[in-house]
Predict the structure.
Amino acid sequence: MLFEILAAYGISSDESTILPFGAGLINNTWKISNNGKEYILQCINHHVFRQPVFIAENLDLLSSYLNRRFPGYLFVKPIPALDQSGMVYNPQYGYFRLFPFVSDSYTYEVVPASSLAFEAARQFGRFTRLLSGFPAETLNITLPDFHNLSLRYRQFEAALSEGDAGRIEEAREPIDLIGRYKYILDQFEDIKHHPGFKTRVTHHDTKISNVLFDRNGDGLCVIDLDTVMPGYFISDLGDMMRTYLSPVSEEEKDLSLISIREDYFKAIVSGYLGEMKTELSADEIAHAVYAGKFMIYMQALRFLTDHINRDVYYGAKYDGHNLVRARNQLTLLERLTEKESALNRIVLNYIDGLE
Ligand code: GN1
Ligand code: MG
């Protein structure tokens, strides 16, 4: 299937090794090795990203701005096909793009040490800071309402009235928990009208596998820029909390293993705020812990909604997969809120230390 695509780049698939790469839920990714050169090939999920050309345009805009203003910044952009286009379209399989594999770079699926959480947070903070002079409103909206919690909640309510009745019955407990934490949505409604909150160039998918590291564990750059759009800082800071704080991932079924590691929290805060403290308002910084609650709650809502809708978005590798993921995220939310005052103290201590 991939030979036609590779041919559009002048790469012979006969001489290539092609291996599936990474663990993303949305796009399909392969690592290609050909005559000593390495590439990443990705098929964009067209059902999710309805206008793949929007992504390519955003990458062009960001890359030329960063090149001009910060020529030393490592920005991994797609390799043009033989016909110079940034993407290759195949009527059967959809849109593909090819990236150079950054040599001597390493990625992780789980955060192996707090020093890497620090480095990742620094890279995501740096990305937004370097782009603070870039007109964020000129970016295409690749996924409308992606992190609009209000819409996610409405989709959840729609699923409750139209979704699978048996699954709703079985999910009573997590559904009740969603109701118990609804104040997180109310706070988001306030944020949307709060003059102290700004939208900036935001990555929107700050999991550890979206950072490239060198062999010493120093961060090189951020990748997977499909969801880069104007957004609130809580999306990026919050998704790091969601995915770095617990020693186990959203896939873990044994909920007793979920916990909040305070040293990782400290690492995220100092890495991210080290870059972003001059950009963020005092009101925004006061919502640092809220960022984690916001993202975890939204992910719980999304998994639970998908379960009730019979796994149309995320798919399921086993029966009840998205219900497990939703319960996992709700447990993580519970663990985070239990530690809220300790975590707020860490943020305050960090800010005090700067003054
Ligand atoms: C999806 O495809 P992946 O794994 O990078 C999702 C994120 C979720 C994540 C949960 C476009 O990201 O928003 O947080 O799954 N991306 C999209 O694992 O929906
Ligand atoms: Mg992604």
